[in-house]
């Protein structure tokens, strides 16, 4: 049981290049999320997918696109990378469980992205 | 206005002492949840503890407990008998709305905790 996996772990891009960050979870969770974390700050939600087939914008969606490929996989694409997108990107997944148990989000290890 | 406020950017605590990390929140929802996560230097985010707004008792998970004061809108994390491995960033987060609805977590800026030997 790997939990949430992300690839790659590190990436350096030049301004204007594109790339896709991959995320997969093996916990059969319905919901998946992409966050970015900038130095000294908490997480900011980029996009989320409440269930397979749906995606919604979070707090900072500009410059990103997402695809919920299937229940397991949720990818984040940067079409034309900018230095302002230098950050650590986290993928997370969760499921709602009723009767008092929280729908805790479980996180992947993160991707450190630098845009030059 | 910030919805989650963590007023302590950094803390130093002696090993084996108890630690309280502050978190205040702002919401007009009656149904909400509060989470604490730990982020060690390795970078991963680790879930520690959860408190629902309707939970009558304070949540506890091993050495972690949540001091939930609803009227004051505070949800402080208490770590008893701190250990060197507790050195990390700690984030408070809030979910607004019903548990079975789509939701987003709102995150505080974090507190960096350093345990001194």
Task: Explain how this protein is built.
The complex is a heterodimer of chains A (116) and B (117). With 116 residues, chain A is mainly beta. Chain A has no helices and 11 strands. In chain A, the strands form 2 sheets. In chain A, strands 2, 4, 5, 6, 9, 10 and 11 form a 7-stranded mixed β-sheet that branches. Chain A has a 4-stranded antiparallel β-sheet with strand order 1-3-8-7, with no helix packed on it. Chain B has 117 residues and is mostly beta strands. Chain B contains no helices and 12 strands. In chain B, strands 2, 5, 6, 10, 11 and 12 form a 6-stranded mixed β-sheet that branches. In chain B, strands 3-9-8-7 form a 4-stranded antiparallel β-sheet, with no helix packed on it. In chain B, strands 1-4 form a two-stranded antiparallel ribbon. Chain B starts with a strand and ends with a strand. The mean pLDDT of chain B is 90. The interface between A and B is medium-sized, with 28 and 25 residues.
Structure keywords:
heterodimer, A: 116 residues, mainly beta, seven-stranded mixed sheet, four-stranded antiparallel sheet, 0% helix, globular, B: 117 residues, 50% strand
Topology:
The complex is a heterodimer of chains A (116) and B (117).
Chain A lengths: L3 E4 L2 E4 L5 E7 L5 E7 L5 E7 L6 E2 L7 E4 L5 E5 L8 E8 L11 E2 L3 E5 L1
Parallel strand pairs in A: 2-11
Antiparallel strand pairs in A: 1-3, 3-8, 4-5, 4-9, 5-6, 7-8, 9-10, 9-11
Chain B lengths: L3 E2 L4 E5 L4 E3 L2 E2 L6 E8 L6 E7 L7 E2 L2 E6 L4 E6 L8 E9 L8 E3 L3 E6 L1
